[in-house]
Every structure is written in structure tokens, then in C-alpha cells.
Amino acid sequence: MRLNFKQRFFSWLDSYDIYDEEGSTVFTVEGRLSWGHCLHIMDACGNHIGTLQEKIFTFLPQFEIYIKDNYIGCIKKEFTFFKPLFNIDFNGWRVDGKWMEWDYTIWDGQRQVAAIYKELFHWTDMYILDIADSRDALGVLLVALAIDAEKCSRG
Questions:
Q1: Nearest to residue 75, comparing CAs of 146, 150, 125?
Q2: For the chain, where are the alpha helices, taking DSSP H only?
Q3: What is the reported pTM?
Q4: 39: closest CA among 19, 13, 9?
Q5: Which of 31, 71, 147, 149 is the most exposed place for a label (fewest CB within 10 A)?
Q6: pLDDT by residue (tens digit) across 21-45?
Q7: Which is nearest to 29 in space by CA: 13, 37, 38, 40?
């Protein structure tokens, strides 16, 4: 499954549209006013299905993940010198990034869950999410949103 993750051009808060390969909207993401990033994920029908909430007052960025209103885990940026590394405490996943911080791979043990690529030369942030199993789409999207929010907080 391939998803295109595109930030909206005119938006005061973080807002994204996530499309499938045919160009149909699969998810929408709306930023909410809060301390730190707070992103609400809706399905194609507009039903709230998840939330990504940045924890504030932490040494390195951390994001809590909620499916509907249930806490399922946390994504934490790890301290490294050359390659970005994120620790995920749900699904047994880990995230490895390239040193330029544009491309990431999500692993479940030896199985590749997804590859995340940032497309360059667009007016807004645009990522391609290649997901091995469509059942992991929401989890992969939440990881991609956390990575993008962490980069946005730094820049």
C-alpha cells in the first residue's frame, strides 16, 4: 500500500491530507491549538480515529499515540550523532533514519513494516509512505507525523 502524505499550503496549524495511489483521500489530519503539537487524525468519512500529542518539558521530543481515545504508546527521539533514531514503545517497532533525515524505515524485528520518503522541491512537506500491510497504515501515519513534527519543532 502506498500513501501520499501532503501538508496543506494555507493552514495556520499543521494540517495534512493523506491520499492513496488513486488520489482518494484516506485520512485527514488537523492540528489543534495546544502546548506542543497536537494532531487529530480522521478517516475518509471524518470520524476521529487517532491523536498524536507532543509531551512538553522533555529533554528530547516525545509524542503520545492514541487510537480513538485509548493510549497505545509513545514515540521518543533518541540521542545520536549521525543517524536519527526513534524509540517506539508500541507494536514492537523501531525506526531507523538516513543521516539527511529525509528517509526512514520502520522495522518489526527483521520484517520491514514501511518505508517513508520525503519528496523534495514541493511548496509544502510531502512524504511517500510505502506500507507492507495495509492494516499498519494508521500506525505508520502516526510515526510519520511524529517525525515531521519533531523536525518542525527543531526548525
A1: 146
A2: 137-154
A3: 0.85
A4: 13
A5: 71
A6: 999 999 999 887 666 789 999 999 9
A7: 40
